[in-house]
Amino acid sequence: MSDQEREDNQEVYHFSPDESVPNHVAIIMDGNGRWAKNRGFKRSAGHRAGMDQVKIIARHANKRGVKALTVYAFSTENWKRPLDEVNYLMQLPIEFFDEFMPEIMEAGIRVTMIGLHEKLPRKTKKVMERAIKETSHNTGMILNFAVNYGGRNEIVEAAKAMAEDISAGKLKPQKLTEEDFEDYLMTSVLGAYQNVDYMIRTSGEERISNFMLWQNAYSEFYFSSLAWPDFDEKAFDEALAVYQKRQRRFGGL
Known about the structure:
single chain, 253 residues, alpha/beta, 43% helix
């Protein structure tokens, strides 16, 4: 449900700590560039503001009891953007972990990553890998970064890996299940939480944009008109409140 739909229906939901919270929230953080343009700033200022918002929402989601938070930081299609913007986006993870790591450790948050790691710049890849290693024993919320990630690519790579194991005689095709296939997806690092419960997209766009295609099969969707840098704790709680009013049937009655 979008913000406009809520206004049209004159329904305002309020988050309740006593009701269910989605285990896995995935966010398409859209609108950084438009946010900056509307304020007369460079696009890089919007991306910087968006990075700061990841910190805010990660802290808040952890407090609300979310078990895994996946943020779509950089898609496989984002390489098509101007080189200076791509270079800036590749620098942001370095700044993010330099600033936020103490809080991550204090909160017990565990960092994971999905995407094609080997194609990232060396410094970006190194800082991501260090954050994953240093937080590997933390037992709090999983903060999962989708970097150089594409949903179709993930499924193709999983199918290729499974086919290799079938050819090697490790698997019998007739006995394969959906759960077996999920073991080959990048999100297997999330364990029991790899399937998305709640997918949020900001800035008014209402499409999935090649994001976690398998994992979103039965997720609830929420679209906000707010640009990502404006999507604060209050907005996140409003989104959770909408989720709490949904009835998830998974195809049943």
